Amino acid sequence: MRVLWAVGLCLAAGLVNAGCSMTGGGNSISAATPPVPAAPPPIVYGTFLDGPVGSKLSQADRDKALASEQDALASGQRKTWKGEHGLFGFVEPAPGTPASAIVNVSAPGGAAPATADSCRAFTSTIFIAGRPQVGHGTGCANPDGTYRITS
Q1: In what order do the strands lie in the sheet with 131-141?
Q2: How far apart are the first and last CA of the chain?
Q3: Residues 6 or more apart from 116 whose CB is under 8 A from it?
Q4: Dihedral angle at the C-alpha atoms of 44, 48, 50, 54, nearest 10 degrees?
Q5: Closest alpha carbon to 124 in 54, 55, 44
Q6: What residues contact 96, with CB distance under 8 A and at least 6 apart?
Q7: How confident is the model at residue 29 (pLDDT cuts 50, 70, 90)?
Q8: Percentage of the chain surpassing pLDDT 90?
Q9: Residue 93 and which of 19, 57, 64, 73 are 20 to 30 A apart at CA?
Q10: Element of type H or E holding 46
Q11: Nearest CA to 62 among 83, 85, 93?
Q12: Are 96 and 131 in contact (CB under 8 A)?
């Protein structure tokens, strides 16, 4: 009777395992792996915010300064920002429409060059310890309405 019971148990275990799908003779069940989302493109701050002046700012302050640059370029108006520990600054886009000095600025990744009509010069002033630090840059319009800081 015990032998019959052991054989029945082995058969039952075999039937349970037979219901699992195994491919390629492997010993594991394969499941669909969800796709890994693409990493966002790196943030380009431009030479002023990526340089010595920007290195004195916290990440949050650099982000505020960049957001002000974006807003100023899009609106054509002066934009101010206030950061941590008394830091503040403002961004002034160049008067008129686009920067006339910008010709054939290539976009990263080999995209089509930007034209002078889609670029705008700006001046960014950041006050650190009460002293103004002034930088100049250029932003070129992306198709989505944001600006790519090119210098």
Answers
A1: 79-82, 88-93, 119-128, 131-141, 147-149
A2: 87
A3: 98, 99, 100, 101, 102, 103
A4: -130
A5: 54
A6: none
A7: low
A8: 25
A9: 57
A10: helix 46-50
A11: 83
A12: no
Structure tokens at 6: 């052991």
Structural contact between residues 84 and 60, judged by C-beta atoms closer than 8 angstroms:
yes
Which residues are 23's β-sheet partners?
Answer: none
Q: b/e for 118-145, b at 16 or more Cβ within 10 A?
A: bbbbbbbebebeeeebebebbbbbeeee
SS3 state of residue 113: coil
- Of the candidates 105, 108, 129, 107, which has an alpha carbon nearest to the alpha carbon of residue 117? 105
Q: Please tell me whether the overall predicted TM-score, pTM, comes out greater than 0.85 for this model.
A: no
Report which residue type is found at 67: A
